[in-house]
């Protein structure tokens, strides 16, 4: 996993080199479709996705299940959660 931004040209060249050698570059990008409620949820999801790369499934990762219709439903759920939080 790469560190956070900003990335400079040297970082990008090295990431290109390691992917050409067969590695997977997986930036720790939060998946907000999972509607995390705290930082722990974000960390758990990010670690789960990293472990997925090693075929280790801890059952903690909520995977995206769909296209545009699912995205609309997810946004509606997020708005409803926001409204209940005040």
Protein described:
- The chain is mainly α and 86 residues long.
- Helices cover 51% and strands 0% of the residues.
- The longest helix has 18 residues.
Task: Sum up the structure in keywords.
86 residues; mainly alpha; 2 domains; 3 helices
Briefly summarize what is shown:
This protein is an all-alpha fold. Helices cover 51% and strands 0% of the residues. It has two domains: 1-30, no CATH class; 31-85, no CATH class.
Q: What secondary-structure arrangement, pairings included, does this model have?
A:
Layout: H1 9-20, H2 39-52, H3 68-85
| Beta strand % | under 5%
Computed over alpha carbons, the radius of gyration is 16 Å
- Termini Cα gap: 35 Å
Give the CA-based shape.
elongated
Total strands: the figure is 0
The helix fraction, in percent, is: 40-55%
Give the helix/strand class.
Answer: mainly alpha
Number of helices: 3
Q: The biggest beta sheet, please?
A: none
* Domain module tally: 2
Mean of residue pLDDT? 84
Oligomer: single chain
What is the succession of H and E elements?
HHH
- Which regions are unreliable across 5 or more consecutive residues at pLDDT < 50? none
């Amino acid at each position: 996993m790469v560190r956070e931004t900003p990335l400079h040209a040297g970082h990008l060249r090295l990431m290109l080199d390691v992917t050409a050698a067969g590695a997977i570059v997986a930036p720790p990008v939060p998946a907000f479709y999972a509607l995390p409620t705290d930082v722990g949820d974000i960390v758990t999801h990010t670690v789960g996705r990293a472990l997925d790369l090693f075929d280790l499934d801890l059952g903690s990762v909520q995977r995206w299940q769909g296209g545009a219709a699912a995205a609309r439903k997810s946004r509606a759920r997020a708005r409803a959660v926001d409204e209940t939080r005040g």
